[in-house]
Amino acid sequence: MGLVVQKYGGTSVKDAERVMNVARRVTDTYQKGNNVVVVVSAQGDTTDELIEKAMEINPSPSKREMDMLLSTGEQISISLLAMAIEKLGFPVVSMTGWQAGFRTDSTYGAARIHEINADRIENELDKRRIVIVAGFQGINKYDDIVTLGRGGSDTSAVALAAVLGADVCEIYTDVDGVFTADPRFVKTAYKLDEISYDEMLELASLGANVLHNRSVELAKKYNVKLAVKSSLNNNEGTYVKEVDQVEKMIVRGVTRDNDCARIALCGVEDTPGKAFQIFSLLSKNGIGVDLIIQSIGNGTQKDISFTTTEGDLDKALEVMDGNRSVLKVQDIKWSKDVSKVSIVGAGMVNNVGVAAKMFEALYNAHININMIATSEIKISVLVDQKDAERAVVAIHDKFLV
Ligand code: ASP
Ligand code: MG
Questions:
Q1: Rounded (to 5) percent helix, strand, coil in the chain
Q2: Ligand 1 centre distance from Cα of residue 182 (Å)
Q3: 44 lines ligand 1 (CB under 6 A)
Q4: Going from the N-terminus, what domains does the chain have, and what CATH number goes with each?
């Protein structure tokens, strides 16, 4: 008998009709003789609506109470889905993250799973029940409910698949799988049949918005067979695998991330230790830094620019401004109107000229590059936000059409 973990995202359970649709898919899998564990997200935009409700009352609530609130979205979904499955006449039980044994660290709002005690789930499976688990949540050492960060249900599902030794972890969404670029504005984008864990991890971290990046990290670490599919049809979907099992492509996908802000420190004193001072101040204050560029100093002064997320911008500016005299910075400039556009592909490693081709595509589209960063399997550029969609289209069409 097989064991299948399925995860259904918010759009797949957004209303009664969709919940019934999921119930039928789950029971079909069960009837084929499999044990089935299902992880669900909150219905539709529930999580966003809960955040709005909180903001109406208190714009800066404690993270503990925020997690208490946000975890309720998934609880609605698990009970409704269990009721739908009951109606179809199958044995089923729903569980909160806590009942399912998810223990996490104490970081409210972005907790990491420490362990899953799956005894209760295994007991239920032995009785041939379908088990429905609330995604995105667990409890910490104080027995408080915590959430795993936005999009965290994917991670709940992969972690469960790893612990239970599932044959496959299927992530169901409202698109057919992982695409070469966002099909909403790249008309020529197409679905990939397969992708490596490393490429998927980069795409997820660079704004592709299909899988929670931590879920991919876990899948790679525990060798979980992962598939991304649509809950609205029976198409094949995209399989995420080890690098040596997939055909190497120079570029597998193009992404855009608008959640970027750039800070430029102009006229920084050109002496050793300045970068160290700046970036240790940022890291001490918990501010994540992404792209960095430093100009060649003229002996007395240089410029250092870096990007962070829009959410961290104010804090970063405050820290830089507060240390102006220590850092010996003349001027601080910033902008939120920037986007990061990236290409990802494992075949890039041994291929010279990939960067040149990407820059050529941008040049032909008259798009200016503000910053560049490269690694083994990705190249990112920072462009003005107004140019970002055009940049993705131009680069996608250069490499993938
Ligand atoms: N409901 C949560 C969110 O919207 C978790 C998830 O959907 O994975 O972020
Ligand atoms: Mg998601």
A1: 40, 25, 35
A2: 20
A3: no
A4: 3-174 (3.40.1160.10), 261-335 (3.30.70.260)
